[in-house]
Prior knowledge:
alpha+beta
Amino acid sequence: MRKTGFLILAIILGICMLQVFLPASEQASFAAGDLSADARPVEATAGSEAAAALNLDAKGAVLMDPQTGEILWEKNAHARYFPASMTKLMTMVVAMDMVANGQARLDEPVQTSERAESFGGSEVFLAAGETFPLEQMLIAIAVASANDAAVAVAEHLAGSEEAFVAMMNAKAQELGLKDTHFANCHGLHDEQNYTSAYDMAVIARYALKYPKIREWTSIKRYTFRKEPLSILDNTNKMLYWYPGTDGFKTGFTDAAGLNLVSTVEREGLRLIAVVMGVETPNGHFTDSMKLYNWAYKQWAFQRLYDQGQVVATVPVGKGRLEQVNAVAAAPIGARVSRIRGKGEKVRAEVEIPPILNAPIKKGQKIGQVTVYRDTVAVDHVDLLTAEEVSRASLGQEVVRVMRAVFTVRQ
């Protein structure tokens, strides 16, 4: 028993000495294993060591693949923070929903109220009674983060800011956002105006359905009015510093810190990043670039068809043409790993009718492509007609019948 006791004691002492004399690099590898669960990448199959080494200043962060909604990296993704002017992305989303539904037009005039004029901070110095088209007001929101324009738009579209905010919260509920509540349309500090990095990424993913929002948020400089001259500069420096950036919105208050919800597309692969609560100057930009730099080393976009490329042809009955081309409404493909030996197989399944009867409109949806990464469906892309096909004339129909008869006889 005494010998056994000495043996156990020797083993324990040996382990302790090993910890002391391990090289620093080895000790660091043990420490990396202690990374908190909320800072670990969700998808650790590609570059997991590099992902774990991403040290962000942000309190909360998310990197999302908008094609599938998959989270590629996260840190405190569901913790609630103040969005500041990132709030305005939802303001633009609700406005574009109303345009898409026919409830508003981008060219309709928006008149500034005295209340809207009173809002300071980031603004375009609207005067009560001053009128601009809805689209121009939305550009002021997107480029200059104009609080006065946000209130003017909200009042115009819903009758009051309060009614518009109710629409924003209804949209949040529709999108399934569990950690979001809006108290205003501009993002000036309010304890009841909060969201999470994950929820903001979901809003950004939805915003991608409206190319206009990316068009506005990617404008670097905009002349809002000529008399008196008012030139707006975009607050999102990623547009200057990081090629491929085309959205979305910065945000800052003392309580919120520096925030950024952004989107980048490179070689067909689009990603969304959200960073919140950064305290170092320009840290919301550098944190976002860290996420994108890491991601574009791990994944690429395997393209099967370009937007507008012919995917299939469909026979046409009773038409001036005997067949019509079905083209892709958007690029067809999927995100795949860049790491050798880990590349997934991407394939497309085409669903089209056996025949279409004329008349057929150009751009008419006639089918769908389902994109698979290995065995998992990751995207659905509409197939549209490439040209208009009118009904065949009586003469054409007679010729086709006669040709069919003679073909059968032969």
